[in-house]
């Protein structure tokens, strides 16, 4: 496991400590969780933008009934 050191001001430390306590986490757990959620949200946003661009190029949609019929369900 890698260790990442982050420098924060005293005020930021208190803010992080309070936020972590409200969630029942250590500061380290809180920062790790928050960072990973941010990365996941950014990834989701990129995927959405890509799908949106593809849809704008070829705006074809299918109803649930059409999909079931095409898949013989």
Automatic annotation (TrEMBL):
Alphabetical list of InterPro entries matching this protein: DUF6290
Lineage: superkingdom: Bacteria
Pfam families linked to this entry: DUF6290
Name this protein carries in UniProt: CopG family transcriptional regulator
Species of provenance: Furfurilactobacillus siliginis
